[in-house]
Amino acid sequence: MKNFFNLFYKNLFLTRRLLFGLIAAVVFFIFRFFFSWLGWLPNLYVGALVLLAIIDGVLLYRTRNGLFARRQAPERLSNGDDNELGIYIENFYPFPVRLGIIDEIPFQFQKRDIWFKTSLAPHQHKLLTYLLKPLKRGEYEFGLIRVFTQSPLGLLMRRYNFEESEVLPVYPSFLQMRQYELMAISNRLSELGVKKIRRLGNSMEFEQIKTYVPGDDYRNINWKASARHGTLMSNSYTDEKSQQVYCIIDKSRSMKMPFEGLSLLDYAINASLVLSNVALLKEDKAGLITISEKVGAIVPAEKKPAHLNKILEVLYKEKTRYLETNMELLYSTVRRVIKQRSLVVFFTNYESMPALQRHLPFLKRIASFHLLLVVFFENTELKMLGQAPAANLEDIYIKTIAEKFAYDKKLMVKELNKYGILSILTSPQSLTINTVNRYLELKAQQKI
């Protein structure tokens, strides 16, 4: 009896068509009170409506499992990217049905409109796809798939609940990483905004002797080999390999600031993952250090095939902390972990000149041993305020203060350059492009 209650009563709903029919019945009875000639017509109408509702219920419930639904999702989601998910639905009824489908997505998305309307012919199946864009790393729990079914009569609606609860992890932006990887393999990085850097000279790593073709640098002609072969031969050089590229990510409170839903820490993590992948594609070694008031994760620089997955797993677990970065500890960690001269990319954020001045002594020490690149962020909200027209005195004050903060950021770049420290001042959205461009530029200029 309890199973029948759960199967029939709890999952049975009235449709608008039936409600409008009942309202029409009430109107019929009201009219009969004034017009006696209507007689038994309202009673016949109500009887027909009830009979059709019973027939509709029999159609919906005579097939015990009239529908099948399953969520199709990847093993993990990519943070900050549009991830495609799907719902596979199949109709086992011998008649066409109209469906309303609710997918109970994780609460982190704060969406209540994942509702699909579709129809299926007898024994037809269909795949419905939609996109989700997570803005925070971690575990996301999906709930049930609820399907509301109507027969051609459309008076009643039966609900199916499919136990599709699952937990999907949200990792740093591996979709963006793959996009850069595919573009790099096919030499189409310029489509993503990566600049083609002119090489200033030849790297010192010899690759092979090959036949000279028009367009090769004539300075690389190997005259001895040309004399032996009776044709012009040219020395071929390749990029210097096995150089170390370390990404250092600041996890302090300054990286908690959000832009377009993502925190600065997440932007830095996504950029670090892409930069590490590009460095490995260039046959350099990629390493990682995270820091706040204490040392977080340390991944020594390597170029093994599985090394990128190790970096990905470490970045997945990193979270913002709420204390200031211990720069003395960072310096000692860099000296202990990084034994040879390397490119050190430090992702952090400075909102004022005093904040930079506190870090500057330790940044100068690191720069004396390594090629240091400090990456920090423009405040795009303040930049928009500074560019907005001023309509009154209050707007003038706001605009002046915003421009003052923007000017301070430019002064920080000059201050770093004064001590030979490279820097990138970028908007969060352009972080990955600008960082990869600078890495390729430094590599082409043979500074690492």
TrEMBL record:
Pfam families: DUF58. The keyword Endoplasmic reticulum does not apply. It comes from the Bacteria. InterPro entries: DUF58 (IPR002881), vWFA_dom_sf (IPR036465). The keyword Glycoprotein does not apply. The chain crosses the membrane at residues 18-38, 44-61. Keywords: Membrane, Transmembrane, Transmembrane helix. Residues 209-353 form the DUF58 domain. This is DUF58 domain-containing protein. It comes from Mucilaginibacter robiniae.
